[in-house]
Write a structure and sequence with these properties.
Elements (H helix, E strand, L loop, with lengths): L10 H4 L5 H14 L5 E2 L11 H11 L14 H15 L9 E4 L2 H12 L5 E6 L4 H8 L3 E6 L15 H6 E6 L12 H14 L2 E5 L21 H4 E6 H4 L8 E5 L1 H14 L5 H12 L3 H24 L11 E5 L6 H12 L1 E2 L1 E2 L10 E5 L4 H12 L6
Parallel strand pairs: 1-10, 3-4, 3-5, 5-6, 6-7
Antiparallel strand pairs: 2-8, 7-8, 9-12, 11-12
Helix pairs in contact: 3-12, 4-12, 5-6, 5-11, 13-15
The structure holds pyridoxal-5'-phosphate (PLP).
The site of pyridoxal-5'-phosphate (PLP) has 13 residues, from helix 5.
C-alpha cells in the first residue's frame, strides 16, 4: 500500500554540497561492467596494506578484555602521548597530550566538526580553491558562508593573503589550509606558515591546517608542519591522520593538535556524539606512531619511485607538468580545447584511464585533472602510454 507519509529533512541537510565524485565512480564502474580494463587514477585511497606489525598489534589487542569495554570518552592517554612523541621527533613541536590533542575518527570527522564548534550561522570561513571538498561540508552544517582563497600555479598554489578583500578579512573567523596539498600536490615552506600566523593574528582568524599528507615528501624533504611556526598554537590547530602515513585509511584514526581552547571545544562536541575509538584500534595506532618508522620511509620511497616513472612517461608523450614534491597526487594541466570534465571523460572513454576532473575541487581546479600515484609503476606507465596513443600533446 502506498503511504503518503512524507519525511522532510532539516533545512541544513539541503545545504550539503552534492558529492561530485560519485558520478565519476559510476562512470568508472560502467566501463568495468562493460568488460574494460580501467586504470583508475581518480581516487585517493592508498593501494598497499597496513604494515604487518600494526595489524599484529590490533590482533593482539583485540584479545584484551579492557578494550571490550567503553573506551574513555576522550580516548586513552597512551595514544595521545604517542602522537605527541611523533610530533616531537618529526617536527620538534611540543604538545601537551591532555589539553592539546583530541582523538578523532579520522581527519575528516574533525574537518567537519571544526566549523560547527567555531562558527555561527552567517559567519565566514576561508577555504582553498581548488580544495578538498570536506571543508565545504562542515561549513554547510554550521550554516556558515565560504569565501574562496584562489590557489594559483604562479604563486606555487599558496594563497595570496594580500589579495584578500578588506571585507573578507574582517568577516572571516576560520581558514582552512592544506599542505602537502590535495589536489595540487604543492607543499608549503615554513616562511608561509610564519606569514599565516601573522595574518591570522592581525585579522582574528583561526587557522586549521590539514596535514593529511604530512608524511609524504620527496627528494629527501620532510614537509613542514604548521605547528612549527612560532605562535601557531595561539591561532590554530593541525589535523593529522594515520590514513596516509601508515596506509590506515579504513581504520579511522586522526587527531586535532594545537590550540587548547579549540581542542576542548572539539572534545566537548565529541563527548556528546561518540565514545572514543575501539581500544584495540587505539592501541595499534599507538604502536604505529611509536615503533620503527621504517615502514613510512619505504612507503614514501615507493611513491617517489612511482612519481619518477609516471613523470618520465609523461615527458615521453609531451604532457608537460611540474613534478610534485609531496602528497601522492599529480596535478596535470588539460590540453587546449577541453574542460577538466570533458578531458576526464575523453580519457575514460578512449584510453580507459580514470582521472579526477579539477572542477570537482572548486572552480579554481578548472583546467587540470588529478591523478593518484596509487597504482604500480607498470600500471602508471601503461596509463600514460594509453593516453599517448590519443596524440593529444604536441
Ligand atoms: C586533504 C585531505 N584531508 C583529509 C583527508 C581525510 O582523511 P581521513 O579522514 O582518512 O583521516 C583526506 C583524505 O583523502 C584528504 O585528502
Amino acid at each position: 500500500m502506498m503511504s503518503n507519509f512524507s519525511i522532510p529533512s532539516a533545512d541544513v541537510m539541503k545545504q550539503l554540497p552534492t558529492q561530485f565524485f560519485a558520478t565519476l565512480v559510476q562512470n568508472v564502474n560502467r566501463e568495468i561492467a562493460a568488460g574494460h580494463d580501467v586504470i583508475n587514477l581518480g581516487q585517493g585511497n592508498p593501494d598497499t596494506p597496513t604494515p604487518p606489525h600494526i595489524v599484529k598489534a590490533l590482533q593482539e589487542s583485540a584479545d584484551n578484555p579492557l578494550y571490550h569495554k567503553y573506551s574513555p570518552f576522550r580516548g586513552y592517554s597512551f595514544l595521545k602521548e604517542a602522537v605527541v612523541q611523533r610530533y616531537q621527533e618529526d617536527y620538534g613541536v611540543t604538545l601537551d597530550p591532555e589539553t592539546e590533542v583530541a582523538i578523532l575518527f579520522g581527519g575528516k570527522t574533525g574537518l567537519v566538526q571544526l566549523p560547527q564548534v567555531l562558527l555561527n550561522p552567517g559567519d565566514l570561513c576561508l577555504v582553498p580553491d581548488p580544495g578538498y571538498p570536506d571543508y565545504w561540508s562542515g561549513v554547510a552544517l554550521a550554516k556558515a558562508e565560504m569565501s574562496f582563497l584562489p590557489l594559483k600555479e604562479e604563486n606555487r598554489f599558496l594563497p595570496d593573503y594580500e589579495a584578500i578583500s578588506e571585507e573578507d578579512r574582517r568577516r572571516a573567523k576560520l581558514m582552512f589550509l592544506n599542505y602537502p596539498n590535495n589536489p595540487t600536490s604543492a607543499i608549503a615552506p615554513l616562511s608561509f606558515y610564519e606569514d599565516t600566523v601573522e595574518f591570522a593574528k592581525r585579522n582574528g582568524i583561526v587557522v586549521a591546517s590539514d596535514f593529511a599528507y604530512g608524511a609524504i615528501g620527496f627528494d629527501g624533504e620532510r614537509p613542514v608542519s604548521f605547528l612549527q611556526a612560532q605562535g601557531a598554537k595561539d591561532v590554530g590547530i593541525e589535523f593529522y591522520t594515520l590514513s596516509k602515513t601508515y596506509n590506515m585509511a579504513g581504520w579511522r584514526v586522526g587527531f586535532a593538535l594545537g590550540n587548547a581552547e579549540i581542542i576542548s571545544m572539539i572534545n566537548l562536541l565529541q563527548d556528546h556524539m561518540y565514545v572514543s575509538l575501539f581500544g584495540g584500534i587505539q592501541s595499534a595506532a599507538a604502536t604505529a606512531l611509536t615503533s620503527s618508522q621504517d615502514c613510512v620511509g619505504e612507503l614514501v620511497a615507493r611513491y617517489e619511485s612511482r612519481r619518477n616513472a609516471f613523470y618520465d612517461a609523461l615527458g615521453l608523450i609531451g604532457w608537460k607538468a611540474t613534478r610534485p614534491s609531496g602528497s601522492f597526487f599529480s596535478w596535470l594541466p588539460v590540453p587546449q580545447g577541453y574542460t577538466s570534465a570533458s578531458f576526464a571523460d575523453l580519457l575514460l572513454r578512449e584510453a580507459k584511464v580514470a582521472v579526477a576532473p579539477g572542477i570537482g575541487f572548486g572552480n579554481g581546479g578548472e583546467g587540470y585533472v588529478r591523478a593518484g600515484l596509487l597504482s604500480s609503476e607498470a600500471r602508471l606507465t601503461e596509463a600514460v602510454e594509453r593516453i599517448g596513443k590519443l596524440s593529444l600533446f604536441g
